[in-house]
Amino acid sequence: MWRVAFFSLRPRSHFVWMDSVPESAASVKKILCEAPVESVVQVSGTVISRPPGQENPKMPTGQIEIKVKTAELLNSCKKLPFEIKDFVKKTEALRLQYRYLDLRSFQMQYNLRLRSQMVMKMREYLCNLHGFVDVETPTLFKRTPGGAKEFLVPSREPGKFYSLPQSPQQFKQLLMIGGLDRYFQVARCYRDEGSRPDRQPEFTQIDIEMSFVNQTGIQNLIEGLLQYSWPNDKEPVVVPFPSMSFAEALATYGTDKPDIRFGMKIIDISDVFRNTEIGFLRDALSEPQGTVKAIRIPEGARYLKRKDIESIENFAANHFNQEVLPIFLKANRNWNSSVAKFIMEEQRLELIRLMEIQEEDVVLLTAGEHKKACSSLGKLRLECADLLEIRGVVLRDPALFSFLWVVDFPLFFPKEENPAELESAHHPFTAPHPSDIHLLYTEPEKVRSQHYDLVLNGSEIGGGSIRIHDAELQRYILATLLKEDVKLLSHLLQALDYGAPPHGGIALGLDRLMCLVTRAASIRDVIAFPKSFRGHDLMSNAPDSVPPEELKPYHIQVSWPTDSEAEKSSLNHPHHPES
């Protein structure tokens, strides 16, 4: 009698022991022993309990075995390009090239099955418990002003193109006007964002819109949705989620998507240095919106090396053109900032009190315009967290899920390329805050919006807003403030004139959410067939070239770049290894 371990149910990765009977042992043994790994084998026999003491409680099928009568090799597997075991290291390019094999791994099976379970629970919560209607919206649409770049699809009409929607935004608003007052969709969305890390040209979002709702109503719905669909093997979701204004998030964490699992908050220490003799601090405070900001790295002097501090200084200089000073107020270090000796005793004591500085703490200090100083310290806060965790300090518990609503965003931001012009902070359909509507006509840059983001562990997983339902207000914002061509949105503006109800909604990024829930290294690990870093499908080699004769019906032809243009393009978009 002999035993062999083998995958009997490959999709579930269940191992089943098989116990051959004497009369068929030789033939069965030959088939099973000679079959290459990952081959498909059909066996028949009797399922029986395993002998006492031989059960395996760690396996779903650890209580049973099969007394085999026959075995047949259905399909032999050729030599594998890599072992299908989670602990075997493979390059991501190889995994994407043989994605159908990579999907057999335990982790990919777990990720995709959990994703399916959560989506099913979301459908149940929205449709069965809250009366939402699941509506599919078109994939072929027209280009939308503002926002991310869209993929173009040629049509057979000369010079006319469809666009793939970056979200169903206009359609869900039109559904509200059409009387479908609770809409939901697992929506496919498309954005031509080029080579951006951890982004996908096509992605999935849980898209939601409601009529006669306010911001609180949307937030309550989403909190209930996540609580209902949350996996049983994770810590339960606690509601309500905390909320923070955009201004507070920027001032305290230096970002609009703060990771609140750890401290190291930004502190305004401008008042400490009002009468300072330190030149660059004095100069910064003399400028409009000039501030002095600092963060405290707990036990930084103990865990960070001199090269780490130098790396932090270089990071700030290279990425933000911002000077950052490391100061040791209670730790004796000969690599203290040269500025530290100019800090008066009174200022030193006030800093220790204000920032609650302990032994071995390091203070990172910077000065400049409020937003720039906060943003640079916000990035350095995360850099320092990475460095501390490399040294063994646990700051961000991976098993902890910290949700946060960020609210009261500005309605507009100045354009980077032309600060005198405005662009939408969210999208042009976002309603202004009721208290700020009068500022639209005098100081639009000061208007707050009814836009809200949902953040989880420092990643934005959702965003939404209450929409503009008044045609004249929408037209004014598009044409006068954003200087967009309203003809592109004539259908929506016309629809708003036919009794549009107040409405609002949100979209949850399903890929990002699942990446965080499963603790995956990349969103590509929670998508069955993702694109590479450069937007390529390494399995099928898409995108692919098309013969000229197939382009003729669309009245387009390929204009190949010259050598100089190709060289310029390679400089603007440096080559990255496929991953």
Automatic annotation (TrEMBL):
Family (UniProt): Belongs to the class-II aminoacyl-tRNA synthetase family. Type 1 subfamily.
The name under which this protein is listed is Aspartate--tRNA ligase, mitochondrial isoform X3
Taxonomically, the superkingdom here is: Eukaryota
Q: Where is this region: Disordered?
A: 557-579
HAMAP family recorded: Asp_tRNA_synth_type1 (MF_00044)
Q: Where is the composition biased (Basic and acidic residues)?
A: 565-579
Kindly give the SUPFAM superfamilies that the UniProt entry links to this protein. Class II aaRS and biotin synthetases (SSF55681), GAD domain-like (SSF55261), Nucleic acid-binding proteins (SSF50249)
Outline the extent of the Aminoacyl-transfer RNA synthetases class-II family profile domain. Answer: 112-530
* KW tRNA-binding (keyword) present: no
Question: Mind telling me which Pfam families this protein's record contains?
Answer: GAD (PF02938), tRNA-synt_2 (PF00152)
Which keywords annotate this record? Aminoacyl-tRNA synthetase, ATP-binding, Ligase, Nucleotide-binding, Protein biosynthesis
Signal peptide interval: none
The UniProt entry, under InterPro entries, shows: Aa-tRNA-synt_II (IPR004364), aa-tRNA-synth_II (IPR006195), aa-tRNA-synth_II/BPL/LPL (IPR045864), Asp-tRNA-ligase_1 (IPR004524), Asp-tRNA-ligase_1_N (IPR047089), Asp/Asn-tRNA-synth_IIb (IPR002312), AspRS_core (IPR047090), GAD-like_sf (IPR004115)
Single GO molecular-function term? ligase activity
